[in-house]
Specification:
By secondary structure, this protein is mostly helical. It contains 19 helices and no strands. It folds into two domains: 200 residues, MFS general substrate transporter like domains (Growth Hormone, Chain: A, Up-down Bundle); 194 residues, Growth Hormone, Chain: A (Up-down Bundle), CATH 1.20.1250.
Length: 407
């Protein structure tokens, strides 16, 4: 593989991107109640909504910015946007500081994660795009899992506030150092070889609200977009509601951290294989069974009681997520005209990360009327129905012969 050292460096940097997000994955509900006295579920889960709104926005516009601004500059901007995050978290005087930190975190995640992926794809060449994309996601989610567990350990040993967030400061400092001093700019020839179809597509720059809506007019694309949104709805549930359930079951912070970590860990590991499996066996089976598996796990999760059962279900939830996450992206690309791929992938990612907002809002509304177990059960049923929806509405096609699938 060409450009191995730069690809390895960018993989490490994406691990830092994931680890910054992971700090929040196991401790936020406890932080909200113990430090800020937050008991209103809508306000508690607002930190996920703030993250989701900013990330979905920058995901959509990031591709357009990448056509006008260099890759390295956008990567650095992503890390510059992360600078306020540890300070806002460490010195927070109210929950509103936490919400603002998550606005910056969403912007940072959208830019930095996207740029590490895009730069690696351009450096690796056509034959190794799938490999480096898998490595990027594996590094990001594995680091997220380890960070989730480590932040829980720090919170247990010292306190939930502010000690875990010193880790965020160290992550941002190291990432900025690596990105500034050792990441090389992508050459114009490398950019052009990967993006010439976009530069000739004037509609890419003109696309606005219409593109966000028009994707629902295509049957296959509509099915994938809806499923992608529900998938991230589940991730919002795992981020904001699972810790609440585990606290109510009497688990300590270390146990909660382990359960929270197992989910993204298995997600990251199995993503190395599922995208390739879909190339061989088709997109639809993995999408249908992946969503169905997630739904079944959520139904069981709501009624589990032991640490072993929660850890096992968390691992299976990660497997279900890995079955669909890279396959959704591949299916969107399959069903788009070559000149429309970047637009539709950007729109898909916009709606997918809108799932954070929908998931946090829906969970908060359900928790007003129902207990945590019932809330998770309802979302589990919704997820299972999404698998059924894909089965009935996504038209299968041959991967080997596809230039773009009609939908």
């Amino acid at each position: 593989m060409q450009n191995k050292s730069q690809i390895a460096l960018l993989t490490l940097i994406n691990a830092l991107v994931g680890s910054l997000l992971g700090i929040e994955r196991s401790i936020m509900p406890m932080l909200a109640e113990q430090q800020f006295g937050i008991k209103n579920n809508m306000l508690l889960l607002a930190f996920i909504m703030a993250f989701g709104v900013s990330k979905m926005t920058v995901n959509y516009w990031g591709g357009k910015w990448a056509m006008k601004v260099s890759r390295k500059k956008l990567l650095l901007i992503g890390w510059y946007l992360a600078i306020p995050v540890p300070f806002l978290l460490i010195f927070a005087q109210s929950w509103w500081w936490i919400l603002l930190a998550n606005v910056f975190l969403g912007l940072q995640q959208g830019l930095a994660w996207s740029m590490t992926l895009l730069m690696k794809i351009e450096l690796a060449g056509e034959k190794n795009r799938g490999l480096v994309a898998g490595l990027n996601e594996f590094a990001g989610y594995t680091a997220l899992a380890l960070s989730a567990y480590l932040s829980a350990l720090i919170a247990k040993e010292y306190n939930v506030f502010p000690y875990p967030f010193f880790l965020a400061g160290a992550i941002v400092a190291v990432a900025l150092l690596l990105s500034t001093l050792w990441v090389k700019e992508i050459s114009k020839s490398q950019e052009k070889s990967q993006t010439i179809d976009l530069q000739n597509n004037k509609t890419y720059f003109a696309c606005s609200v219409n593109c966000i809506i028009e994707i629902f007019q295509q049957k296959n694309q509509r099915a994938v977009v809806i499923a992608g949104l529900v998938n991230n709805l589940n991730d919002a549930l795992a981020w904001g509601v699972f810790p609440v359930l585990l606290i109510s079951k009497g688990f300590d912070l270390e146990q909660i951290g382990l359960i929270a970590a197992v989910y993204p860990l298995t997600w990251g590991i199995f993503q190395l294989f599922t995208g390739k499996w879909s190339d061989s066996y088709g997109r639809k089976p993995l999408m249908v069974w992946g969503m169905a598996l997630q739904g079944i796990v959520l139904l069981l999760f709501a009624w589990a009681n032991t640490f072993i059962s929660f850890a096992f279900l968390s691992a299976v939830l990660g497997l279900g997520t890995a079955m669909v996450y890279p396959v959704f992206v591949a299916a969107i690309a399959d069903n788009a005209l070559p000149s429309q791929k970047a637009i539709q992938l950007g729109v898909y990612r916009f709606w997918r990360d809108g799932g954070f907002v929908v998931g946090a809002l829906l969970s908060a509304l359900l928790l007003i009327k129902f207990e945590v177990g019932i809330t998770i059960t309802i979302i589990g049923l919704l997820t299972s129905l999404t698998g059924v929806y894909i089965q009935w509405n996504f038209k299968s096609y041959s991967i080997k012969n596809v230039k773009y699938a009609t939908s």
